[in-house]
Amino acid sequence: MIQVSEPIVRRKLSDEVFDRLERMITSGELKPGDEMPSERVLMERFGVGRPAIREAMQSLANMGLVNISHGERAKVQKVTARSIFRQVDLTAKIMLSQSTDSLEHLKSARIFFERGMAREAAQRAKQSDIAELHAIIEQQRASLGDAEAFISADMQFHTRIAQISGNPIFIAVSEAMLAWLREYHTDMLIWTGKEKFTLVEHEEILARLAANDADGAEAAILKHLERSRSLYNK
Protein backbone atom coordinates (compact mmCIF):
# COMPACT_ATOMS: atom_id res chain seq x y z
CA MET A 1 0.00 0.00 0.00
CA ILE A 2 1.35 3.42 -0.96
CA GLN A 3 2.02 5.75 1.96
CA VAL A 4 1.04 9.35 1.25
CA SER A 5 3.81 11.50 2.72
CA GLU A 6 2.85 14.87 1.27
CA PRO A 7 -0.94 15.07 1.09
CA ILE A 8 -2.41 18.07 -0.71
CA VAL A 9 -4.69 19.95 1.62
CA ARG A 10 -7.78 21.39 0.00
CA ARG A 11 -8.08 25.05 0.94
CA LYS A 12 -11.20 27.12 1.38
CA LEU A 13 -11.97 29.48 -1.48
CA SER A 14 -11.96 32.41 0.94
CA ASP A 15 -8.37 31.57 1.93
CA GLU A 16 -7.31 31.69 -1.71
CA VAL A 17 -9.10 35.00 -2.16
CA PHE A 18 -7.46 36.35 1.00
CA ASP A 19 -3.99 35.46 -0.32
CA ARG A 20 -4.64 37.23 -3.61
CA LEU A 21 -6.05 40.34 -1.96
CA GLU A 22 -3.14 40.42 0.45
CA ARG A 23 -0.71 40.27 -2.49
CA MET A 24 -2.55 43.16 -4.14
CA ILE A 25 -1.88 45.21 -1.00
CA THR A 26 1.70 44.11 -0.27
CA SER A 27 2.74 44.49 -3.92
CA GLY A 28 1.56 48.09 -3.97
CA GLU A 29 -1.22 47.47 -6.49
CA LEU A 30 -3.50 48.81 -3.76
CA LYS A 31 -2.07 51.53 -1.54
CA PRO A 32 -3.16 52.94 1.85
CA GLY A 33 -6.30 55.00 1.36
CA ASP A 34 -7.31 53.22 -1.86
CA GLU A 35 -10.76 51.73 -2.10
CA MET A 36 -10.90 47.98 -2.52
CA PRO A 37 -12.51 46.74 -5.76
CA SER A 38 -16.23 46.08 -5.47
CA GLU A 39 -17.49 42.63 -4.57
CA ARG A 40 -18.80 42.19 -8.13
CA VAL A 41 -15.43 43.06 -9.67
CA LEU A 42 -13.62 40.66 -7.34
CA MET A 43 -16.15 37.89 -7.99
CA GLU A 44 -15.56 38.22 -11.73
CA ARG A 45 -11.78 38.53 -11.37
CA PHE A 46 -11.38 35.44 -9.18
CA GLY A 47 -14.36 33.40 -10.38
CA VAL A 48 -15.81 32.88 -6.91
CA GLY A 49 -19.06 33.67 -5.12
CA ARG A 50 -19.92 36.56 -2.83
CA PRO A 51 -19.50 34.58 0.45
CA ALA A 52 -15.82 33.82 -0.33
CA ILE A 53 -15.16 37.50 -1.08
CA ARG A 54 -16.87 38.71 2.09
CA GLU A 55 -15.10 36.18 4.30
CA ALA A 56 -11.72 37.13 2.84
CA MET A 57 -12.45 40.84 3.29
CA GLN A 58 -13.42 40.27 6.92
CA SER A 59 -10.15 38.43 7.49
CA LEU A 60 -8.26 41.41 6.05
CA ALA A 61 -10.21 43.72 8.35
CA ASN A 62 -9.44 41.54 11.38
CA MET A 63 -5.74 41.90 10.58
CA GLY A 64 -6.05 45.67 10.29
CA LEU A 65 -5.24 45.70 6.57
CA VAL A 66 -8.57 47.18 5.46
CA ASN A 67 -11.31 49.20 7.09
CA ILE A 68 -14.90 48.16 6.43
CA SER A 69 -17.62 50.77 7.00
CA HIS A 70 -21.32 50.13 6.50
CA GLY A 71 -22.54 51.49 3.19
CA GLU A 72 -19.04 52.33 1.94
CA ARG A 73 -16.37 50.55 -0.06
CA ALA A 74 -13.67 48.98 2.10
CA LYS A 75 -10.41 50.96 2.15
CA VAL A 76 -6.81 49.87 2.50
CA GLN A 77 -5.42 50.86 5.89
CA LYS A 78 -1.96 52.22 6.53
CA VAL A 79 -0.23 49.72 8.80
CA THR A 80 1.81 51.28 11.60
CA ALA A 81 3.58 49.92 14.65
CA ARG A 82 0.78 51.36 16.79
CA SER A 83 -1.95 49.70 14.71
CA ILE A 84 -0.17 46.35 14.89
CA PHE A 85 -0.12 46.44 18.69
CA ARG A 86 -3.79 47.45 18.73
CA GLN A 87 -4.55 44.24 16.85
CA VAL A 88 -3.12 42.13 19.69
CA ASP A 89 -4.27 44.34 22.57
CA LEU A 90 -7.18 42.18 23.71
CA THR A 91 -5.23 38.94 23.24
CA ALA A 92 -2.35 40.31 25.32
CA LYS A 93 -4.68 41.32 28.15
CA ILE A 94 -6.28 37.87 28.16
CA MET A 95 -2.83 36.25 28.28
CA LEU A 96 -1.89 38.41 31.27
CA SER A 97 -5.14 37.62 33.07
CA GLN A 98 -4.58 33.88 32.71
CA SER A 99 -1.04 33.64 34.01
CA THR A 100 0.90 35.28 36.84
CA ASP A 101 4.09 34.28 35.04
CA SER A 102 3.05 36.29 31.98
CA LEU A 103 2.64 39.42 34.09
CA GLU A 104 6.08 38.92 35.65
CA HIS A 105 7.58 38.39 32.20
CA LEU A 106 5.99 41.64 31.01
CA LYS A 107 7.42 43.52 34.00
CA SER A 108 10.89 42.15 33.21
CA ALA A 109 10.52 43.01 29.53
CA ARG A 110 9.53 46.55 30.43
CA ILE A 111 12.59 47.01 32.65
CA PHE A 112 14.89 45.68 29.93
CA PHE A 113 13.26 47.94 27.34
CA GLU A 114 13.17 51.13 29.42
CA ARG A 115 16.81 50.83 30.44
CA GLY A 116 17.68 51.04 26.76
CA MET A 117 15.24 53.88 26.21
CA ALA A 118 16.79 55.86 29.07
CA ARG A 119 20.25 55.51 27.55
CA GLU A 120 18.96 56.50 24.11
CA ALA A 121 17.09 59.50 25.52
CA ALA A 122 20.13 60.70 27.48
CA GLN A 123 22.16 60.76 24.28
CA ARG A 124 19.50 62.47 22.16
CA ALA A 125 17.47 64.69 24.51
CA LYS A 126 17.07 68.35 23.54
CA GLN A 127 16.08 71.22 25.79
CA SER A 128 12.52 71.01 24.47
CA ASP A 129 12.35 67.33 25.50
CA ILE A 130 13.61 68.15 28.99
CA ALA A 131 11.10 70.98 29.32
CA GLU A 132 8.20 68.71 28.32
CA LEU A 133 9.27 66.00 30.77
CA HIS A 134 9.51 68.61 33.52
CA ALA A 135 5.98 69.80 32.70
CA ILE A 136 4.70 66.22 32.93
CA ILE A 137 6.25 65.82 36.39
CA GLU A 138 4.55 69.03 37.52
CA GLN A 139 1.28 67.77 36.07
CA GLN A 140 1.75 64.56 38.02
CA ARG A 141 2.51 66.51 41.20
CA ALA A 142 -0.71 68.48 40.74
CA SER A 143 -2.59 65.17 40.44
CA LEU A 144 -1.66 63.88 43.90
CA GLY A 145 -4.73 62.21 45.38
CA ASP A 146 -6.32 61.60 41.98
CA ALA A 147 -5.31 58.03 41.14
CA GLU A 148 -6.40 58.02 37.50
CA ALA A 149 -4.79 61.36 36.67
CA PHE A 150 -1.59 60.47 38.52
CA ILE A 151 -1.20 57.14 36.74
CA SER A 152 -1.98 58.74 33.36
CA ALA A 153 0.77 61.30 33.92
CA ASP A 154 3.12 58.51 35.02
CA MET A 155 2.51 56.65 31.75
CA GLN A 156 2.92 59.88 29.80
CA PHE A 157 6.34 60.47 31.41
CA HIS A 158 7.65 57.06 30.36
CA THR A 159 6.16 57.25 26.87
CA ARG A 160 7.67 60.71 26.38
CA ILE A 161 11.11 59.26 27.12
CA ALA A 162 10.56 56.67 24.37
CA GLN A 163 9.45 59.44 21.98
CA ILE A 164 12.87 61.09 22.27
CA SER A 165 14.26 58.17 20.25
CA GLY A 166 12.22 59.26 17.22
CA ASN A 167 11.60 55.57 16.50
CA PRO A 168 7.86 54.82 16.03
CA ILE A 169 8.37 51.15 16.92
CA PHE A 170 9.94 52.05 20.27
CA ILE A 171 7.06 54.45 20.95
CA ALA A 172 4.43 51.84 20.08
CA VAL A 173 6.12 49.21 22.27
CA SER A 174 6.21 51.65 25.19
CA GLU A 175 2.54 52.60 24.80
CA ALA A 176 1.43 48.98 24.51
CA MET A 177 3.35 47.67 27.52
CA LEU A 178 2.20 50.54 29.72
CA ALA A 179 -1.43 50.08 28.65
CA TRP A 180 -1.29 46.36 29.43
CA LEU A 181 0.34 46.99 32.82
CA ARG A 182 -2.20 49.64 33.73
CA GLU A 183 -4.82 46.91 34.05
CA TYR A 184 -2.91 45.64 37.10
CA HIS A 185 -1.80 48.88 38.72
CA THR A 186 -2.93 48.72 42.36
CA ASP A 187 -4.08 51.50 44.66
CA MET A 188 -0.87 51.07 46.66
CA LEU A 189 0.66 53.83 44.56
CA ILE A 190 -1.81 56.43 45.74
CA TRP A 191 -2.90 55.47 49.19
CA THR A 192 0.38 54.52 50.90
CA GLY A 193 2.46 57.57 50.10
CA LYS A 194 4.45 55.83 47.38
CA GLU A 195 3.42 58.49 44.89
CA LYS A 196 6.02 60.78 46.51
CA PHE A 197 8.75 58.24 45.77
CA THR A 198 7.60 58.21 42.16
CA LEU A 199 7.95 61.99 41.86
CA VAL A 200 11.43 61.99 43.42
CA GLU A 201 12.55 59.18 41.12
CA HIS A 202 11.13 60.88 38.04
CA GLU A 203 13.03 64.03 38.97
CA GLU A 204 16.26 62.03 39.29
CA ILE A 205 15.70 60.39 35.90
CA LEU A 206 15.06 63.82 34.38
CA ALA A 207 18.23 65.24 35.94
CA ARG A 208 20.31 62.44 34.40
CA LEU A 209 18.68 62.96 31.00
CA ALA A 210 19.29 66.71 31.17
CA ALA A 211 22.97 66.02 31.94
CA ASN A 212 23.21 63.62 28.97
CA ASP A 213 24.35 60.99 31.46
CA ALA A 214 23.43 57.66 29.84
CA ASP A 215 24.81 55.49 32.66
CA GLY A 216 23.13 57.62 35.30
CA ALA A 217 19.80 57.66 33.44
CA GLU A 218 19.85 53.88 33.09
CA ALA A 219 20.67 53.41 36.78
CA ALA A 220 17.95 55.86 37.83
CA ILE A 221 15.23 54.23 35.76
CA LEU A 222 16.31 50.75 36.87
CA LYS A 223 16.02 51.81 40.53
CA HIS A 224 12.61 53.36 39.83
CA LEU A 225 11.17 50.36 38.00
CA GLU A 226 12.52 47.77 40.44
CA ARG A 227 10.99 49.72 43.33
CA SER A 228 7.63 50.16 41.61
CA ARG A 229 7.50 46.58 40.29
CA SER A 230 5.34 45.41 43.21
CA LEU A 231 2.68 48.00 42.36
CA TYR A 232 1.50 45.87 39.46
CA ASN A 233 -0.35 42.83 40.78
CA LYS A 234 -3.08 40.48 39.65
Overall description:
69% of the residues lie in helices and 2% in strands. With 234 residues, the protein is mostly helical. The chain has a two-stranded antiparallel ribbon with strand order 1-2. 24% of the residues are buried. Helix 6 runs parallel beside helix 11. The protein is elongated, with a radius of gyration of 24 Å. The longest helix is centred in the middle third of the chain and has 25 residues. The chain folds into 2 domains: 64 residues, Winged helix-like DNA-binding domain superfamily/Winged helix DNA-binding domain (Arc Repressor Mutant, subunit A, Orthogonal Bundle), CATH 1.10.10.10; 150 residues, GntR ligand-binding domain-like (Four Helix Bundle (Hemerythrin (Met), subunit A)).
Shape: elongated
Number of separate structural domains: 2
Low-pLDDT regions = 187-191
Nearest-integer average pLDDT = 89
Strand arrangement in the largest pleated sheet: 1-2
Distance between the termini: 57 Å
**Could you say what the CATH topology of the largest domain is called?**
Four Helix Bundle (Hemerythrin (Met), subunit A)
Q: Would you state the CATH class of the largest domain?
A: Mainly Alpha
Biggest sheet, in brief?
Answer: 2 strands, antiparallel
Determine the number of helices (DSSP H or I, runs of at least 4 residues).
12
Please tell me how large the radius of gyration is: 24 Å
Structural class assignment: mainly alpha
Order of helices and strands: HHHEEHHHHHHHHH
Beta-strand content bin? under 5%
CATH superfamily of the largest domain: GntR ligand-binding domain-like
Keywords: DNA-binding, Transcription, Transcription regulation
Protein name: GntR family transcriptional regulator
InterPro entries: GntR_C, TF_FadR/GntR_C, Tscrpt_reg_HTH_GntR, WH-like_DNA-bd_sf, WH_DNA-bd_sf
Domain HTH gntR-type: 11-79
